[in-house]
């Protein structure tokens, strides 16, 4: 389901997904110059709309893109949802700097079904490889420039892993498209380091956990914090909580009771 959005004029229309849309000189294609935001679709609603809209606006500001009006994107989301139904899905907003020949920004909203790979990871967990992220970004924006990230995932998969956990100068950062959370007793921890994208999902988990008597903290973390945890998770808006069963040769999340308790907390926090 695709809705084309006019960032300036405020108009929008449904687009036939079998027909082309992106022009050859669009900056999203030629330079990865744009931003995106992913929301979970559940019960024909876009979950955590306000939190995602705010981060979308901050990303646009960081890249000096046109301000994405929240009301406009709410209308686009509602139009896409009106054609979607009750199936779970993931909604992706994209805002590109646009065509070089016109200088006009382009934008669209798409809903995808949840793929089988995601469903399998929810049920069985993932084995992760540690990889350095290189130059940690100071932009704090969710940009379209994901080529290095996707190359890292493909490399990890070629080595027999499912996903990556990025590091920078020995510190843990995040998963390829997710935030890292460790559980030890009644304490939740997530890495604090330069280059970590602000996570709406991690924030939602921590807010819920605090209200229910858990202690939460963002702190610098190394591999030893994973190995010493009772339970380790990657969380994202559309994939939800996914158990990390191993980090390279090290088994993790071996405490079944802790995994069960943590999963109940994460599912309640995220509505899974």
From TrEMBL:
Domain of life of the source: Bacteria
GO cellular component: cytosol
InterPro entries in alphabetical order: Aminotrans_IV, Aminotransferase-like, BCAT-like_C, BCAT-like_N, Class-IV_PLP-Dep_Aminotrnsfr
GO biological process: carboxylic acid biosynthetic process
Pfam families: Aminotran_4
One GO MF term attached to the UniProt entry: catalytic activity
Family affiliation: Belongs to the class-IV pyridoxal-phosphate-dependent aminotransferase family.
Protein name: 4-amino-4-deoxychorismate lyase
